[in-house]
Specification:
Blueprint lengths: L1 H12 L13 E4 L7 H11 L5 E4 L5
Parallel strand pairs: 1-2
């Protein structure tokens, strides 16, 4: 039942008109270690305003 409600809510999102007030950017930050790039992380936090998806990714190629 919960799955069905989540699926229905997701489908309803397709019907929402685009408007500047409901714009929610989704950002993937390729930072390396975020401890060494706090300014980049802060900038992305400001852009998403804490209401959107922000993913920080650290890749180690060893």
């Amino acid at each position: 039942r919960a799955y069905r409600r989540a699926l229905d809510a997701t489908h309803k999102l397709d019907n929402i008109q685009r408007h500047v007030k409901n714009f929610r950017p989704q950002i993937l930050i390729l930072t390396g270690n975020p401890i060494y790039r706090p300014t980049l992380v802060d900038l992305c936090w400001l852009v998403t305003y804490g209401h959107s998806l922000m993913i920080m990714w650290k890749c180690d190629f060893r």
